[in-house]
Amino acid sequence: MHEGHRERLISKLIDGNTLLSDHEILEILLFYTIPRKNVNDLAHRLINSFGSLQGCFSADYHSLLSIEGVGHKTATFIVTLGEIQARVEKNNNELPTIFSFDSCKQMLINSFRGATEEKFAALFLDKQGKIIFRKIFSSHSNSEVNVDLSELVKGTLVRKPHSVVICHNHLSNNINPSDADDKATEKIYMILKINGIALVDHIIVSGDKAFSYHVYDKLDAIKKKVDLSLT
Asked: Residues 111-135, buried b or exposed e (16+ Cβ, 10 A)?
């Protein structure tokens, strides 16, 4: 009977059912730390003890252990989820809602600070320019960025952005784009265009400085060059 109940709850979650209650969401999480027992009562106890889901995820390890039915594994799991939630909220607060070079410049500089290899990042935007997803790819190189275009395209197929901003870092203090940077921008613009996605900007970060292809009109020149080659 427990297995049927668990499968029904998980199916509701996967189907995007927004009617799941807080205790049902918590119950699903508990399935993975207490695999062979009915955890419905424990989910209710946790919610009642800490007042809400947020209260559960804000609780410390020893407070969780004081609840009947919570052992080391479950308490550690909930504390870990609470820490993940706190870090995600912190990152979201640092991420501007609408993209512009000025609003995102410092965030991007912070993202690459302390990097010991060149990395490539992509910001996915919706029609209003809202940032809906951010992903950083590592090139495992300290001299150049090897952009895995298949990973970028795969990400666009999943997230379905209206437009994309790309960014990478230079380990030197030189933020000026190289010929290789220009060629990579051309290739990325072409692939995104073929897939019906706009390239909004390519930003280069080095130290506390940043260069924008859009602001310095280099992106328009590249777009014209590529568009001519496609006609």
From this structure: bbeeeeebbbbbbbbbeeeebebbe
The tally of CA atoms less than 13 A away on the side-chain side of residue 17 is: 14
Closest CA to 41 of 76, 4, 68: 68
**pLDDT, tens digit, for every residue of 56-111?**
999 999 999 999 999 999 999 999 999 988 877 766 656 677 899 998 998 889 88
Query: Each residue of 119-174: pLDDT tens digit?
Result: 888 999 999 999 988 887 765 555 555 667 888 888 898 889 999 999 999 988 89
The C-alpha atoms of residue 221 and residue 217 are separated, in whole angstroms, by 7
Strand 118-125 relative to strand 131-141, pairing: antiparallel
| pTM (2 d.p.) | 0.64
Residue type, 28: I
Give the amino acid at 89.
Answer: E
For the record, the structure tokens of 58 come out as 């804000």
